[in-house]
């Protein structure tokens, strides 16, 4: 059994969904994780207990509804990282 934060899935889904709408200079793995970290620090976690290997995102994607708080936090994080990427 594992603890899993559902908001992590939502944040990564949100990044993929709005990356074409929000101007981001760079979306490399580093910047993507920086965006996710900033957004997740501004959101309340939603922990569930999962079976080992159970991929919640797959089951969830069938009826996926974006949380507006998640979208707002990701949009804000994209602006912060876009202005100041933490690499050359
Ligand atoms: Zn980058």
From TrEMBL:
* Database matches in Pfam families: ComFB
The name of this protein is Competence protein ComFB
> What organism does the record attribute this protein to?
Tissierella praeacuta DSM 18095
Lineage of the source organism? Bacteria, Bacillati, Bacillota, Tissierellia, Tissierellales
């Amino acid at each position: 059994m594992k603890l899993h934060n559902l908001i992590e899935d939502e944040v990564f889904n949100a990044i993929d969904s709005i990356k074409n709408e929000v101007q981001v200079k760079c979306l490399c793995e580093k910047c993507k994780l920086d965006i996710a970290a900033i957004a997740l620090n501004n959101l309340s976690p939603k922990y569930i207990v999962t079976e080992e290997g159970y991929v919640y995102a797959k089951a969830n994607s069938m009826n996926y509804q974006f949380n507006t708080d998640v979208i707002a936090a990701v949009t804000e994080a994209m602006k912060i990282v876009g202005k100041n990427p933490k690499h050359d």
